[in-house]
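Ligand-bound model needed. 3Y8.
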Amino acid sequence: MGGTTEASRLAVALAEAGLDAVFSYAGRTAHPVSRPLPLRVGGFGGVNGLAGYLRKEGITHVVDATHPFAAQMSTNAVAACAQARVALCGFERAPWQAGAGDLWTHVGSLEAAVEALPDLGARVFLAIGKQNLSAFAGKPANHYLLRLVDPPEAPLPLPNTSVEIARGPFVAAGDRALMQAHGITHVVSKNAGGSGAEAKLQAARDLGLPVIIIARPKVPPRLVLGSVAEVMDWLANAAGHEETSPADRGV
Ligand code: 3Y8
Ligand code: NAP
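Prediction:
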């Protein structure tokens, strides 16, 4: 289950190894980048839908390489793999840690991130995508720079916005220029980890700007691996479905 830089790198390794695998997207974006594996796009239909899919397709191993904020998917995967008796591992990057020169405020939720912002007059780089923007309608007197993958189809829930349409991964020089061009005073970010979304943090450090960083949501405990090599080793050695079919398959 993909949607991250790590998942994309794993897809290359799986294809090169000739393993029978399928790459899964939720279908959040209009034109997701294709991968060197057969693609499936769209939800499974909750825990039972995923468990049914795993059985029907004869999946023996699930690698949950979704984003650390895709907590519902990860939670469903734990339950569905237990139900279908299919091996599961998470594949995710470590959270970012503040370094020298970082002006970070750690918060535990979107609501706390809103609270941490000034009531008015701030120019906020709200680089958290599209799905959680309405939480910030509580502080409409700030100006928000939004970065979205696709042009918004519905009116945005915030009155004062600038919109940048872009799909990462991003680079620090580009984010620094963007933030300077918009006179940004604050950055709001999820603690996504990884390299694809880190550019804005590097740019904020260079510009001496405060960052409000949102901690990851909790997901149920499961085996979590941190590299393509570890996942490939797990796939080679972890027992898959209890009645493993000869054609091992992973998703
Ligand atoms: C549909 C697939 C790859 C994976 C690339 C990574 C890096 C670039 C940085 C900013 C932060 C944000 C957002 C972000 C990044 C990678 C990775 C990552 C953050 C694509 C993709 C899908 C999505 C879904 C999308 C969310 C949104 C979040 C934008 C493809 C490009 C903000 C997360 O419009 C929407 O509804 C967008 C929804 C979920 C978060 C949100 O709540 O809005 N990702 N992003 C996946 C699917 O359908 O299953 O379109 O090609 C993948 C990537 N986005 O190798 O190509 O590894 O994280 N994605 C965040 O970190 O806060 C942007 O702007 O600085
Ligand atoms: P989420 O809230 O955890 O999941 C909501 C529902 O979306 C899931 O229950 C499932 O639907 C479906 N879903 C999620 N990921 C899926 C996948 N890879 N394949 C098939 N169905 C999936 O998910 P999200 O946070 O919206 O993330 C959606 C996608 O965007 C994921 O691929 C994730 O890796 C990627 N992404 C998310 C973020 C982020 O900030 N949240 C950042 C970067 C990339 P059913 O219940 O119907 O099965």
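Residues 3-5, 8, 25-29, 32-33, 67, 127-132, 147-150, 167-170, 190, 192, 194, 196-197, 200 surround 3Y8 (ligand 1) (CB under 6 Å).
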